[in-house]
Amino acid sequence: TQLLEQSPQFLSIQEGENLTVYCNSSSVFSSLQWYRQEPGEGPVLLVTVVTGGEVKKLKRLTFQFGDARKDSSLHITAAQPGDTGLYLCAAGGTSYGKLTFGQGTILTVHP
Amino acid sequence: DAGVTQSPTHLIKTRGQHVTLRCSPISGHKSVSWYQQVLGQGPQFIFQYYEKEERGRGNFPDRFSARQFPNYSSELNVNALLLGDSALYLCASSLDPLVAGNTIYFGEGSWLTVV
Question: Chain A contacts of B101, Cβ < 8 Å?
Answer without folding.
Answer: 30-31, 48, 50, 92
